[in-house]
Amino acid sequence: MRIDLPLLLRVAGVMHLGLIAAGMMMPGVVQMRVHLSTLPPFIRRLFWVYYSFLGLCIISFSTVTIVFADVLAAGGTLARAVCVFFAMFWTLRLVAAAWIFDMKPYLTSSARRFGYSILNVVFVYLPVVYGLAAIQPRWLN
């Protein structure tokens, strides 16, 4: 059985855009502005700069993955290095979702619980696909 790795990577690229959409809704869901208002202005601005830069990184991950899916799937040295980085990034994000962030207070409706479940599926999918692209097991070809 042959796995279409470029297709799996393109799906991963689109999933990044879904994460951006979820990330744009998150400040309202968790009332971020209210919580940040108690912080000194420098720390508040620093948080928003970090939040914006992370969003730009995810958009870049998406763009690289969608545009260069064939190159990433081909398994060149740079492609594997990029896929290792993406796999490590999303593995650490999965760890944060599982053991650092407590979202229970914000999962107040069925829609939010469903959305959070979908996010966790994405957080599992991304490191698996990038990991496969990085190691290029024989059964992929």
Oligomeric state of the chains in view: single chain
What is the beta-strand fraction? under 5%
The helicity comes to over 70%
Q: pLDDT average, as an integer?
A: 94
* Total number of beta strands: 0
Give the N-to-C terminal Cα separation: 8 Å
Structural class, by secondary structure, is mainly alpha
Rg from alpha-carbon coordinates: 17 Å
Order of helices and strands: HHHHHH
Biggest sheet descriptor: none
Uncertain residue ranges: none
- Describe the global form: elongated
Number of domains: 1
The number of helical elements comes to 6
Please describe what this structure looks like.
- With 141 residues, this protein is mainly α.
- It has one domain (5-135).
- The longest helix is centred in the middle third of the chain and has 27 residues, at 41-67.
- The protein is 79% helix and 0% strand.
- The chain contains six helices and no strands.
- The chain starts with a helix and ends in a 6-residue tail after the last helix.
